[in-house]
Amino acid sequence: MNDNQHLDGIKVMVIDDSNTIRRSAEIFLKQSGCTTILAEDGFDALAKVSDNHPDIIFLDVMMPRLDGYQTCALIKKNPQFKHTPIIMLSSKDGLFDKARGRMVGSSEYLTKPFTKESLLTTVRRHTSNPQPS
Questions:
Q1: Which one of 18, 58, 70, 130 is separated from 39 by 20 to 30 angstroms, measured CA to CA?
Q2: pTM of the complete model
Q3: Topology, domain 11-123
Q4: Which of 61, 56, 79, 82 is nearest to 71 (CA)?
């Protein structure tokens, strides 16, 4: 995979209660030309999703108040975001967690800590054929 392949204009939302994860994802994505939207929890994300219409969403599973599964289900209930790919982020790599993510509508499951390459490859895979909005 060509690391210099730019992802100009792709809007990526990263929802994670860890400032470190948000910031490292933001750095990786901005270096590749993506526009990034950051949210620190599910409630913050729900407000920002409607305003920003991201092309792809990375969503942490374990968050306070509203966890990733609940947040994913709420985003997917909105017809505007039914086709928006949501990638679950978790330090747990269990089969049950992956299945639960699929049940609420996630497209993929990325294990933390992720690398720059795995993050960008995932963005490319899910945004190469943009869904009609």
A1: 130
A2: 0.91
A3: Rossmann fold (3.40.50)
A4: 61
